[in-house]
Amino acid sequence: MKNTHSLLRNLVLSFRPKTLTAALVPCLAASALAQSQSKSFVGWILLCALFSSVFIQIGTNLVNDAADFKKGADTESRLGPQRITQVGILNYKTVMLLGAASFLLALLLGIPLVIQGGISIVLIGLISIFMGYAYTAGPFPLAYRGLGDLFVILFFGIVAVMGMNFLYSGQWSFPAFILGLQIGLLATVLIAVNNLRDIEGDRLVNKRTLAVRLGKTGARGEILLLCILPYLIGSYWFVNGPENVFLFPLLTIPLAGKVINNILENEPSPFYNKILAQSAALHLLFGLCLCAGFVL
Predict the structure, then answer these.
(1) What is the pLDDT of residue 5?
(2) Which of 2, 117, 146, 207 has the most neighbouring CB atoms within 10 Å?
(3) What is the dihedral of CA 157, 130, 110, 295, to 10 degrees?
């Protein structure tokens, strides 16, 4: 019984629950935008999209767990939390099968969304799942080519928000693009911090993340930009309204400053796991402030 409990606990941790805000925030923000613009919010669309997005992210995380171990990127010397494949809790094949099961659940949950949104949603769903797999697996793994950051901006920001808004309104809108870009940039802070933490280990196994390509100074500069740009882009809402969508997220600036300060003052180490938690909190709180700005 104890072994079963331990296995389940480690399996849940392999889902990387602290990072699942990257799936939650786009769904909530797009729903708030739809309600603000056209009063078109529908509860079942939010639930189906949210759970589908969560399972895509869990599948991506599991494939990442297995693929990084197989490629030699995860070893006993890694600075981040342990991975279930790395420490031998589950083998490579089992973790990949669990990842595939997560992607399948995402597909099933997406069926009502396809009925609602048509071929556009089919394409978004299939491409999202394929890119989730291709993030670290397949013949051209994005994370190993320095494209992981762009993937997150696109699929956990712009595509997620615009696709969700399309489900509600049947239209592709520029405000949804702006909102998605803000959210995607802050979601990318998580992967950028993760890659800076692992920069030395990744370099040794030729995992050419953007951090490896830019070096420590460049990677810190990237994180600085990713933290600042969402606030600057938010000026769109100040000009075009609602103004609260610009003003409310300003409340999170102290937390953004803490993330930036910690990155600038500390060398990559296990302390970066705390910075990752702060980055996830920043992403979530910024997203909730955006939502409050639309609602209020």
Answers:
(1) 67
(2) 207
(3) 0
148 burial via Cβ count (<10 Å: 0-12, 13-18, 19+) = buried
Tokens of 27: 């769904």
Confidence (pLDDT) at 64: 87
d(CA 54, CA 290): 20
Q: Please tell me the predicted confidence (pLDDT) of residue 73.
A: 62
Question: What is the CATH T-level fold of the domain 146-296, as seen in this structure?
Answer: Four Helix Bundle (Hemerythrin (Met), subunit A) (1.20.120)
CB 102 within 8 A of CB 56: yes
The set of residues, in sequence order, having a beta carbon less than 8 Å from that of 238 and lying 6+ positions away, is 246, 247
Structural contact between residues 159 and 193, judged by C-beta atoms closer than 8 angstroms: no
Q: Where are the domains of the chain?
A: 42-140, 146-296
Q: What is the pLDDT of residue 19?
A: 83
Give residue 3's pLDDT: 64
Residue segments in the chain with a per-residue pLDDT below the cut of 50: none
Closest CA to 204 of 77, 84, 63, 64: 77
What pLDDT is recorded for position 67? 86
Query: What was the pLDDT predicted at 11?
Result: 78
11 — alpha (psi -120 to 50), left (phi > 0) or beta? alpha
pLDDT of residue 78: 60
The two counts, helices (H) then strands (E), for the chain are 14, 0
pLDDT value, residue 8 = 79
- For residues 29 and 27, give the distance between their C-alpha atoms in angstroms, rounded to a whole number: 6
